[in-house]
## 1
Amino acid sequence: MDIVFAGTPDAAVPALEAFAESEHRIRAVLTRPDAPIGRRRVLTPSPVKTRAVELGLDVIEAERLCGEVITRLREKEVDAVAVVAYGAIAGPAALSTSRLGWFNLHFSLLPAYRGAAPVQRALIDGLDRSGVSVFRIDEGMDTGPVLRRLELPLDHADVAAALDDYAHRGAEELVAAFDELAAGTAKETPQTGQASHADKITVADAHLDLTAPAEAVIDRARGTSPSPGPWVELDGKRTKLFGLTPAPDAAVSGEAGQLRSWNGTPVLRCGDGWVRVAEIQPFGKPRMAAADYLRGHGDIRFDLRTDQGA
């Protein structure tokens, strides 16, 4: 089929590459405009745009799907649009620009975790399994019928690892769905079951309540690492902690919020036990090994806060 591919972040690149290697023809790539990145706010192309240019594909940049963008999409006269984390809502005008419709790869087993941060929220909630779904975009929020779904483990160390895995596995499912659309064998199944929502992750969501059980602290850290980064406060200053893993055998005494060394390993006391900490990022400083930090500072105790406010 002739298609448009719509996507923006790194997680969309595997699907773009999979389509480029498939029998489908990419007539254009739709992505968000260059955005300011870093402290110097340097205008930077999206990962999808960068890869599309390398592949020699026509690129359409759009903040919103309206006006001239709709005209350009109609001119392509494509059969379908493949979407992976594009980042803008497709209204009726946009959805009518292809013969068969728009189809989205979503990183959850719909209707669970509809919204912007399905993998992050699933990790925070402590799920050990989730998956990917390919569905037809309608006017609701991730509510359209499902063409393909694949259940997958969710045992990754952090969001980056989980998204990379799901992006590659999902790319195969998305191309397979388009193969079925081309062959006329695609089956669309209405979503059933309990729906849940996965709102965008905020800095407040990344705050670690060190009075909570160790498992809950680890889950929140996994779901907010590497960005925005799980954090606590030390003397009122935000300090990030990375690489939190269980330490059930840490036979040392301490109070909630204390970071100390146990057999040469930094361990952090939570509400019901200890967790290992691999790295620490003090306020205004780069990340460093937590063991090196403790050698220079000795045992420390973080401020205790039980709310999720920033």
## 2
Amino acid sequence: MVSEMDNQSDVIDDIQFQILQLKSSREWNPRAKFLIILLNVQDFASEEIQKNLSRKILTVLWSWKVINVVILMECEQHNFIFEKNDSLVNIYTWFPYNDSNNCEDVTNVILMDNWTVDQKFRLGTTLFPNKVSDNLHGCPLKISSFNFEPMIIGMEDKEDGTVDFKGGLEIEMVKMFANSANMSIVFRVPTPENQHWGVKFDNGTWTGLPGEVLSHHTDMTIVNFWYKCHLINEFECLRPHMIDAARWFVPCAKPYPRWMSITRVFNKSLWIGFILSYIIISFFMSFMVKLVNTFLPREHHSKEYSGVIHCLLNFWAIILEESATNNPPRNSSLRTIFLTWVMFCWAMNTVYQTFLTSFLVDPGLQKQLSSEDDILDSKIRYVIFKVITFLLPHLASDRYRRGEDRPDFMACFDQMAFKGDLALVFSTQRLGYIIAASYMDGDGKPLICSFEEIITNQMISIHIIKGFPMVDKFNKLVGKIVDAGL
């Protein structure tokens, strides 16, 4: 990078403009080596003024985590009789995290070397040495997060306005990071509370956890983040440490109410057929009695079955296995009809009582939603959170037009578990833990279920500001943690 401006403020603006142009590219790499050449600097050629200018330039670059920088400026020339300076170019740089008082502020700008009239470096030092050591002298590692079991557990407010967490899988991981680099951890919680996951505005800015990183308030975010560094250019992701799955979660099928066992033995068509048979045979019996009575003397008439009402009552008694009448039909034709109905009712009652007992002991489960098509074809309401559709845009297509977005995860879980009228897409890692902890019935069975169908597998990674100087060290540590099975 070259600047030909001739005053300090214009030089700073020019460098900042060039950095913003580079930063807009997908290939932007803050950990690259930057060589800055300042021309036309005669007005500030003394070493003290040059250090002050270098400090301002390095401060601007450090806001984007650029530290592999050397600045070249023309030296002040001495042509006095008793003194001569043979240096042509001064080379300045700085080293962050040198001690606990020099963590992130650019204060220790040093004159690294000089280029002499002999066309060689005076000291011969490496222009781009390792700027960050393994010991960061207790400098803070700023992390934004919030309660999200099992990754982040037990948030506690501290007197200084920060927070702390009791434990969790990713909390233990970042503690290993801090111990390995001798850093202190400072936790932050994003605000506002209902936008922890972040909302993207039309101007490209974010709230929540992404906003914490992009505004440089924090170094990293931990909260079971699915990998999204391919979507946000200013993000960088550490090596993934887990794999999560996005699934449909639905209410578990509830047992049938025991009172429904009375009707569940036979399906609807069989009940209708049985009732129609009862009515038809009652009318048929009444008709046959009238027909037979026309050929018999009065004393042999079957008065107990002489009308439709009598036939209905007597045949209903047979259904209930009660005595129909003390005077059964005397005519063989009528007795045949009567016995046919008795045998039919006896067979139906035997089957009914057998299965009724089974249903009373074990009512069974109502229909379980078992696929995405079942959910979309049913009338059940379903939720697809906006934070998920950002990563999985196909879930916002017309196929899922009934999908809702809601701000409160836990309210959705409660409605799904206890009311049974909601389904949703969510993280298997997260909701599996919540179900085991909070949504089990008295028999130890879950109230929220999923099915084998997986929408997508997602890598879980810790998101950091692009150019974070400890990324290589932390990546190696993540690899060791995963390989060790911790």
